[in-house]
Amino acid sequence: MQKFITLGEGYGDVFELEAIISHNHTRIDKAIFLHTDASQSTFLLVMRPVRGNFQAIYSIYMGIPYKDGQGRKYTLIHEWCKEKDIPIVEFSTIDPEDFYAREQFYQYITGVLRLNHLIPPMH
Q: Which pLDDT value is given to residue 74?
């Protein structure tokens, strides 16, 4: 079971993410940037499954300003991941605003990630 865990708002999300990357980098499977044309990017930090099939996916939902490979949060996160040799995946996706609720967007992204073998299938 994959569980999306949204990190704090504002700068709190960056500090929490930095702590997770710094102290739990051995548990991290990959980092994923989800870019759209219309809004800010979403960031996912996919952890390795624990206790059977539970897999945490930390999210900064539509909180990464990104334009043509630029943006302070984007650059910081990219640097932290590279320092810890965490694989980074980036791709374009449907704008989260196109969904009625955040949970629907996460369900859609779960399917996309499974189809691209970025997270394991449900058991």
A: 92
Residue owning tokens 């993410």? 17
Domain residues of the chain, as ranges?
A: 2-115
Mean pLDDT of residues grouped by 10 in the chain (123 residues)? 82 87 95 88 93 88 84 92 96 92 94 92 71
Burial class (CB within 10 angstroms; exposed 0-12, middle 13-18, buried 19+) of 10: exposed
Kindly give the residue spans of alpha helices, DSSP state H, lying in the chain. Answer: 12-24, 72-83, 102-115
Residue 93's pLDDT is what?
92
Angle between helices 12-24 and 72-83 (to 10 degrees): 10
Q: Specify the pLDDT at position 9.
A: 62
In the numeric block, which tokens belong to residue 11?
């700068």
Q: Which CATH architecture fits 2-115?
A: 3-Layer(aba) Sandwich (3.40)
What whole-number distance in Å separates Cα of residue 20 and Cα of residue 28? 9
With contact defined as beta carbons under 8 Å apart, do 78 and 59 qualify?
Answer: no
